[in-house]
């Protein structure tokens, strides 16, 4: 992978300078990243300019230093230099060669200085007001309007908390006409919107910010600052999707902009207000440099107030973790909070003393005293670690439950008031028994109501009712993975049933208790098969004697099936993979046999619900063996049987599995239908245990495959939130991948890029290599459209490196070619050429003539670019020969494909690429100052594009204009005019416009 170069420091280090060299160095430094290094270079160049003694160079150098300070978070250093700049301007301004431009730049910087002076508490207010007065005087003398002056006076009044004066100057600001000294519209709208939001009109603020947020207007700081400012108003407006999107996009834009501390603070504040403190801590960890001096005091104070809000929440939650802070180290959260508060108290005291008001300290206190506006808004970025201290239980993926499904909140009778004071107790108990018999999800709550009512009324439950209550509570404990409690309660149920002479039910619960005891050990050690077999035999004998119900026999059978299922989860043996596979298949065979036994008994006793459970297990076996299509009829049978048994709630699990099976079979609409059915059941009977995240992920993929990316994003977002809450990192990674893909298809490249960048470590850890490659590929595409070409190139190259190991090399080739395009766009031609070379080598052995031709042309152009750097005609000719050979190969590849008959479906695409090759050859000759040799290629290109009308309208228009231009230059104007008329007629006949040909015809006519 090529290393992306950076600018050399040596370009700014010289013992002596000429005026031209200094100008070049000053311009180069302005392109460097903001920060202390850029400021130091600017200071060195200013010293060189002072030594040279040229006033114009000195003024340029002063502007360079001031801008470096502004962009590097050191604006408080600027006023002294600006005073010097004004003196130089007053002495020499009228005599400078570039006087008009320097006059404009000098007056523009006045606005920065007002804010810079205001932000330093040691600068007296009289000095600040005096500076604005001087600004007004000079603006009037130079003929500029007063809009910028009113804006500065508004900012001073706002800072001082003088609402009346602020409103007055705000009105004057809006009333004054825009002129050359007005801030850009994006910056103006930011300040105006912030004022509206502070006054409680969030809707007006969002209307002002809409053009910036939608990229209609922008500048160096925008839309990053506006996106940050919009976060809290959007939360207050409950426009949560927009708030999330603005956080994702806005935080990405802040990278490298240390001067935007306030914006960083707004993102941290947003994390706290949206219930995402962990994400706020991650932002601190990624940007600990924000604590480091130098910094502009007022922005730093606003940043610290948001940090204090975050840390206070952590301390109140009882956290003792270490968090990122100043001095390049981690701090205990309480200790860092104390330090931050101390700095805040010092700064607010200094500002309030200077201002004579408590406006600054009141604003800071209001920020620190906030509480969340939404309990938890999923931000979808991967915050690591998501589970910092307390262990979260990890739910299993969709699989057969090991007990009756119930997730009701358990509470002991003594803790509840009697909600059934006016209800007949016998009716209540009868309803509880009925719900128990049909395994209703609400049975647990009903039995707790029975327990409360009995306790309040002094009624002693009979032994059977006590056993059933214990069973229900045990089921709840199993749901909560509290195995100790489950074993104890199942033991109590056995005792009650035995005391009550209910031998059949006691045997059934003994089987359940054996399973719970096995799970209690937290090992894969199987139960003694004889133990469950003996219980089954006993149940059969009791049932034959009329002492057990069919359900008791089936409960034991079901326990046998669950135990057989558990044995399929044995781990791999690293020393004997072959033996492991054999043991695994044997375990599955045993599981399948136990399921068949359960099904046979369910049919014998005509218990459709147990038969449905057996069919569901059959489906699970098929899916786990990699044969999802075989599971579909089993699941449909299970659903029908549950319907026959009048247990619609039990269809939750079959529908979940059915959705997965349909998705694997590319039956996306069916998968969506089944997934939505599962969600509907879960919503109707919410007491059931439901790993909703997995079904949401299926729905995300199914709706996305049908081209409904907004629906896909909604489902993926729900899946991410569920996976994060339940600590399921593999699902979280997969769902983030789906969400990012949906966002990309919706044109939300910044959101998709933010998700992928944050989640890549998680994806690398939990997802397979092809999925990670696809994620990097998607990230590269998004970064390219966001014009981060270096970042795109890096992701393409990383993906290509991983794809190098894949059996099929088509993806590897396309990634290498895409990396070449990104590197070329990033201004790295040598690295681009190497990437294209790599892609061409791969594509030459693949049946992909179209992409090979495209990549050969791209390699030709980047090679042609090298000719501009060669000094000798012979070298340029050699490079041109190489380029022409590449174009010739591209044409040969396409012609061979066209003549082979193997690419009939791509015939139109191949014809287009042949015309495009000729068109690019014509342009190559024009760029090489060989216009006289371009005509044959231009004519062939025009003919090829014409044959493809109307689909190639724009290309045909361009190529015919080029032919006409060549005719006008090397042939005759009459021939050119005739050619244009023919082209216009052809386009008209095809129902398209020939915009360029019409314009060129008018030009020739004139």
Protein model, in words:
With 1006 residues, the protein is mainly α. Helix content is 71%, strand content 1%. The chain has a two-stranded antiparallel sheet with strand order 1-2. Helix 27 packs antiparallel against helix 28. It is globular. The two termini are 54 Å apart. The relative contact order is 0.04. The N terminus is likely disordered.
Summarize the structure.
With 1006 residues, the chain is mainly α. The chain has 45 helices and two strands. Helices cover 71% and strands 1% of the residues.
Roughly what percent helix? over 70%
- What overall form do the CA principal axes indicate? globular
The biggest sheet, with number of strands, parallel, antiparallel or mixed sense and barrel status, is:
2 strands, antiparallel
Number of strands: 2
Strand order of the largest sheet: 1-2
| Helix and strand composition category | mainly alpha
Binned strand content: under 5%
Number of helices: 45
What's the Cα radius of gyration?
37 Å
Q: Round the mean pLDDT to the nearest integer and report it.
A: 90
